[in-house]
Amino acid sequence: MTKNFENFPVYIKSLDLIEKVYSFLEGKNFQKEFEFNNQIKRASFSISNNIAEGSEYNNNRQFIKYLKIAKGSCAEVRSMMIVSKRLKLGDENKAEEIINLSREISSNISNFIKYLKENIERT
Fold first, then answer.
1. CB neighbours (10 Å) of residue 111?
2. Residue numbers in the chain where pLDDT is lower than 50
3. Burial, 19: exposed, middle or buried (Cβ in 10 Å; 0-12, 13-18, 19+)?
4. What range defines the domain where residue 98 resides?
5. Angle 47-52-60 (CA atoms, 0-180°, nearest 5)?
6. To 10 degrees, what angle do helices 92-118 and 9-24 make?
């Protein structure tokens, strides 16, 4: 990879997702939801961290592995937002924004994986 991960649009979006998650968790209903807070923070960090870590291998096969993990973490964030809506824990509009952004990131990651697969180094 010739580009730094910091410049990948999908990485930048993953940072936006973390900010939205933190904003969502500021609600009073989350003051005692330590496990929920910890898990969704870990899942959202996992997206950006796996994009960053995978990019450093300079190997498309390895990068794809880490992008798939990041994609799974997108699903985890969405699942937790769905649970929060069902339990009426937070602002439904913010939850929906997070769900939509995680879907967008997941789709971007899928496209990135497709691109990398088409350009796998011959070994």
1. 11
2. 1-2, 122-123
3. exposed
4. 5-118
5. 105
6. 160
pLDDT at 123: 42
**CATH code (residue 10):** 1.20.1440.60
Q: Locate tokens 């899942």: which residue?
A: 43
Query: Which amino acid, one-letter code, is at 49?
Result: N
Enter the tokens of residue 18.
Answer: 């973390």
113/96 Cα distance (integer angstroms)? 26
- Alpha-carbon gap, residue 40 to 58, rounded angstroms: 29
Query: What is the structure's pLDDT at 31?
Result: 82
Angle at 92 between CA 26 and CA 71, to 5 degrees: 85
Residue 121: its pLDDT value, please?
56
